[in-house]
Design a protein that fits this description.
The chain is mainly alpha-helical. The chain contains 5 helices and no strands. It has a domain of 85 residues.
Length: 126
């Protein structure tokens, strides 16, 4: 099998491209991990726990999707197996629905404080 199979065995070029893809995915995972840490350390006092937690869950959902798709090779599987890719997204949406009202209240209060600090009258009405 010098040239690989028709389904995707592949030669040297496909192997190098595959390694590059894994390296890029790894870099993306590191970036989202860094964003999670930065958001938790820098923005917790500004926005409070609920929006920061949702942001970290969003980053974790993206990371889980990349891991499932590429490192666990679900991207190349049948559709019913690929449906597992959507499970983290579904969980995130449910959590977002649950904490959405809290996020709205925190952001509304933050915006009111910003407008008050800036001296703008007629800010957000409660």
């Amino acid at each position: 099998m010098a040239g690989g199979s028709a389904k995707g065995g592949g030669g040297h070029a496909e192997g190098v491209a595959g390694v590059r893809l894994y390296v890029w995915i790894y870099i993306l995972l590191l970036a989202f991990t860094g964003l999670s840490v930065a958001v938790s350390q820098l923005l917790m006092d500004v926005f409070g726990h609920t929006p920061v937690t949702v942001a970290i869950l969003a980053f974790s959902t993206i990371k889980a999707t990349f891991i499932l798709a590429y490192y666990m090779h679900l991207k190349y599987e049948r559709i019913w197996i690929r449906m597992w890719l959507y499970l983290p997204l579904a969980i995130f949406v449910l959590v977002l629905i649950g904490v959405g009202p809290d996020i709205y209240l925190v952001l509304r209060d933050l915006w009111t404080h910003i407008l008050t600090f800036a001296g703008v009258s007629g800010g957000v009405h409660h």
